[in-house]
């Protein structure tokens, strides 16, 4: 018999995996991403940990006042959760075993992603539930230093995000998803820094509220990652060629903006509804940016409408210099921060008794 039996049969799933060289390149990239995001997380975590000490330096007081490092730390930890899952997948692909690749897409993802997602949730909740009570108002110089430091910390993550944007998916199939997760801290860090600077310019309340809103982004993405990782444990193992690390659709939509079609595509396939051809949505999309700009300008202009209560008067400051005293009523001034009102108590009588004064008889007459 001349039947030729091949000495080595390559499984179909293994043949569909990236080559060893491509997998090794993806693994090296995942390590560098983990190192970059890990160093930023260590800096932010150390800054947050110092706020729990008894040191009273100016910068530490400012960090403790609003937990400035908490929300950026949550965003960086969310990106680290995705990087950890991608590293596990790249390591399995480098070994060239289809069974290992399929297994790495299930319970190892849960073991890597869920603990980091829990840390993200804890860090995102710090500004709301762990604010330092009875602290002094923010010092402008200190807030500028803290805000500038947060903006500078976003630079290495921005470089990593740009590298992922140009990275070929054949070397690391999780690159598009990781780009979305890295885009999150590159937005959160400068935004938090800008809000910290705004707090020093006289708007600490507004900065605190907007920071709390920013915390919803990493919290929601972390919840999605954790649910996806846990859900994979109850699904059959995917083919090795289709196995991927846990990704976040919210993060990809944030990174890709209007180009993200993850929500419209299922509606088109299953219900036959094509939003791309809707003239109403096209009109809304075209008018959204101008309308938003008009609303922002109108809202800013309304900050120039000031109401002085009946029991107060206010000193009107224009560009930081006092101009005149405003009496009770409705007044039009320059919008914030060009014009400000300093309320002054008016018409209230304070009475303080001395030791030798007789106590007045306040019993009602019969």
Structure in words:
By secondary structure, the protein is mainly alpha-helical. The protein folds into two domains: 12-258, no CATH class; 290-366, no CATH class. Helix content is 60%, strand content 8%. It is built from 13 helices and five strands. It has helices at 12-15, 20-50, 58-66, 70-95, 98-104, 107-129, 140-166, 175-200, 204-214, 216-232, 249-256, 264-270, 279-302, and strands at residues 305-308, 312-318, 321-326, 329-332, 339-345. The protein has a three-stranded antiparallel β-sheet, with no helix packed on it. A two-stranded antiparallel ribbon has the order 1-4. A hairpin with a 2-residue loop joins strand 2 (312-318) and strand 3 (321-326). It starts with 11 loop residues before the first helix and ends in a 21-residue tail after the last strand. Mean pLDDT is 77; it is low at 1-15 and 258-262. Keywords: Membrane, Transmembrane, Transmembrane helix.
Query: Residue share in helices?
Result: 55-70%
Percent in strands:
5-15%
Largest pleated sheet: 3 strands, antiparallel
Q: How many individual domains?
A: 2
Give the gist of this structure.
By secondary structure, the chain is mostly helical. The chain has 13 helices and 5 strands.
Q: What are the salient characteristics of this protein?
A:
membrane, 5 strands, disordered N terminus, Band 7 domain-containing protein, mainly alpha, transmembrane, transmembrane helix, 366 residues, two-stranded antiparallel sheet
Topology (SSEs and partners):
Blueprint: H1 12-15, H2 20-50, H3 58-66, H4 70-95, H5 98-104, H6 107-129, H7 140-166, H8 175-200, H9 204-214, H10 216-232, H11 249-256, H12 264-270, H13 279-302, E1 305-308, E2 312-318, E3 321-326, E4 329-332, E5 339-345
